[in-house]
Amino acid sequence: MEPLTLHFVHEQVGARFISVGGREVVAGYGDVGAEYGAARDAVALHDASYREILRITGEDRASFLHGMVTQEVKNLPVGSAAYGAFLTVKGAMVGDARILKREDDLLLDLEPGLGAKVREFLDKYLISEDAELHDGTPDQAWLKLLGPRTAQVLAAVPGGPLELPAPLSSRKATLAGQEVWLLGTALPGGLAGVDVLVPRAGLEAVWTALVQAGGAHGLKPLGFDALELVRVEAGVPRYGQDMVDTTIPLEANLTNAISYNKGCYIGQEVIARATFRGHMNRKLAGLLLGEKDVAPGTELRRGEKKVGWVTSVVTSPVKGQRVALGYVHRDSLEPGTELTLGDGAGTVTVAALPFTAS
């Protein structure tokens, strides 16, 4: 397991660690409810330095990546970001990435454990283009501020104030003596924040500066477990949990990852055919579980027919019960539809995404 750069900083405040994709992650700091509450109502700081970064340089970097990913790259403005997916020729996902276009390179922000897989996929098609792939993970890392008081924290940092960028736009800044990039973020349901791209050598200085600036605004460190709570309530799938190498992006509701007027890319024919048909046989949906302890992978049935399976499960403060993401056959997607758990533990109810307060 690849340890976190800030392992000892987190250890000093009682962090509990887990492995995700072969990299060390802070699971939590002892009170998931308080961490979640800070993200929802104040501001929370998450060490996302376990995520992997792939850099692409060279004159042909934009045109090369444009043909490899579902999203627009060539006409993406410098300083902007977009979310896209990498597909096989059969339309199944190799992985997903947030793409940040800078003056001199393209950065791919990837799930932990996905860097080598995506690099191998891209390298297979890199033949004569002037483009080079570089592992950026050892040199740079992400920190995440999330919550309605994010702007106040940026305004209070030493050497600031820093301005909160709009979602998917970025700007350079200096924070705690480090040259950083600020990238605006937003989740379905309106929860906004900023991701801070930091030189890995400056992580501790930037983390400390953000913690100090956030003290007057209710900032708390945010572990992976609480971040998963926020993610699932927002209905956002995560590769490796809700998406795998047989998932077609339209099944996972990834319409925000697909450009329909960009021209050819690997897997485009499958996406175009499915779009023209007007439906997928199954789609990612919300599930209300009540108090049932349901494991990911549990089969969903309607009568005698298997109609899907569960992928992510959390206890949702918004819904006051356990909720899940899962794939459901298109004939059973209507919110309110009751499905039977394949393990015989009772029924669950299909719900719209994102999950919102009743």
From TrEMBL:
| The entry's keywords | Transit peptide
Could you tell me which Pfam families the record lists for this protein? Answer: GCV_T (PF01571), GCV_T_C (PF08669)
Q: Does the keyword Ribosomal protein apply?
A: no
All copies of the GCVT N-terminal domain together span: 6-262
Residues of the Aminomethyltransferase C-terminal domain: 282-351
User: Which superkingdom?
Assistant: Bacteria
Q: What is this protein called?
A: Glycine cleavage system T protein
> Can you name the source organism?
Corallococcus coralloides (strain ATCC 25202 / DSM 2259 / NBRC 100086 / M2)
The primary gene name is gcvT1
